[in-house]
Design goal:
elongated, mainly alpha, single chain
């Protein structure tokens, strides 16, 4: 039963994470940019990412399959590497949102420059696209060895 609860929680958190990333990308494209909302949403992305990782670790430790299945599974490691890459890319929007929030405090009319908005928009798009191989690795991981 623990395995089922952890699996459902893990999947629900991942869906929530993807939804928040899509929402961030949409808000970055809006005119005017709601810097405050983006900063709050990005905090949610960070917290949810931490929960995804924590519940994932709990699945490995206390789930039905156990660590022995995962340790030699190349798709498990590919999934973790993809998640880490998404996390590294998330620094681009996070740092931009922090800069924008500081600039907004100094100037209530502040709007981020178009070049920064495009850079953040593109980074979020790549992060969202990387969910596809992550899901593929998860599916392969569950079936390994074939």
């Amino acid at each position: 039963m623990t395995d089922l609860i952890l699996a459902v929680a893990h999947h629900a958190l991942v869906f929530g994470l993807v939804a928040m990333m899509v929402a961030e990308r949409t808000l970055v494209s809006a005119t005017p940019v709601d810097v405050r909302r983006l900063a709050g949403l990005d905090a949610g992305v960070g917290a949810t990412s931490a929960l995804v990782l924590g519940v994932g670790i709990a699945r490995v430790v206390w789930g039905g399959k156990g660590w022995l299945l995962y340790q030699d599974n190349p798709f498990f490691w590919a999934k973790l590497a993809t998640f880490a890459l998404i996390g590294a890319l998330s620094l681009i929007p996070t740092l931009a949102f922090l800069r924008w929030a500081r600039a907004r405090k100094a100037d209530a009319a502040f709007q981020p420059p178009d070049t920064e908005r495009r850079r953040v928009h593109n980074a979020l798009g790549i992060m969202i696209l990387l969910i596809l191989p992550l899901v593929g690795f998860a599916a392969a991981m569950a079936r390994w060895p074939f």
